[in-house]
Design brief:
Blueprint lengths: L1 E4 L4 H13 L5 E3 L10 H6 L7 E3 L5 E3 L1 H11 L10 H29 L1 H4 L6 H22 L12 H15 L9 H11 L7
Parallel strand pairs: 1-2
Antiparallel strand pairs: 1-3, 3-4
Helix pairs in contact: 1-3, 1-7, 4-6, 4-7, 6-8
The structure holds glutathione (GSH).
């Protein structure tokens, strides 16, 4: 197996944090999205949408979508469990992971795309879209903050895929100059703690 990766982008980061938490080592090859290496005909054969990460399987086929890749690896390597162990635990982890990706990471990406100078020449930016995304981000962070409460990890007492996604989202938010509101005390505490884990450096 091999991973096509880009250090600096959130979805690949989510996967690297997951691998580090699991103690899995899979060779990575960097594909630079800034210089559009992911848009070459050769790379588009691996993922027609051009997105990273991509997992190359031993039969030479390719798996895209970070969550599908993580779920596949989790099925191959169930220990330590990162998506819970009972039906209800697994549902709760997935519920939170979806909120962290669709509500937090995706909103940060929308703000980034509509405000950051790096994106200015690449697509049409809209202040209204940025404001909508900021509001959506705040609403989702409020939910996550309440769910975390005083527990050590996003979905409870041990790390899960929800931590991987939230960490990648908040690290990307720093890069995107979307500051985390100090009012979200539980998320801020969790974020400071997770930064100390070796997987945060992945
Ligand atoms: N939903 C996909 C998103 C993949 C994606 O868009 N990745 C970004 C990096 S976070 C990317 O490669 N962007 C560059 C591009 O699409 O050209 C996933 O979760 O893997």
């Amino acid at each position: 197996m091999k991973i096509y990766d880009f250090v600096g982008a959130p979805n690949p980061k989510k996967l690297r944090v997951y691998l580090a938490e699991k103690g899995l080592q899979i060779p990575c090859e960097q594909v630079n999205i800034v210089t559009q290496e992911n848009r070459t005909p050769e790379f588009l054969k691996k993922n027609p949408l051009g997105g990273l990460p991509v997992l190359e399987l031993d039969d030479g086929s390719h798996l895209t979508e970070s969550l599908a890749i993580i779920e596949y690896l989790e099925d191959l390597h169930p220990t330590p469990p990162m998506i819970g162990t009972t039906p209800v635990e697994r549902a709760r982890v997935r519920e939170l992971e979806r909120i962290c990706e669709l509500g937090v990471l995706s909103s940060v990406a929308q703000v980034f795309q509509n405000t950051h100078p790096f994106m200015a020449g690449r697509l049409k930016q809209s202040p209204d879209a940025a404001e909508n995304a900021r509001n959506r981000l705040a609403a989702n962070l409020k939910v996550v903050d309440t769910k975390i409460g005083d527990r050590p990890f996003v979905a409870g007492s041990r790390p899960s895929i929800a931590d991987c996604t939230l960490f990648a989202a908040l690290e990307f938010a720093e890069f995107a100059q979307v500051p985390l509101d100090p009012a979200f005390k539980n998320i801020n505490r969790w974020y400071a703690g997770f930064k100390e884990r070796p997987s945060a450096q992945a």
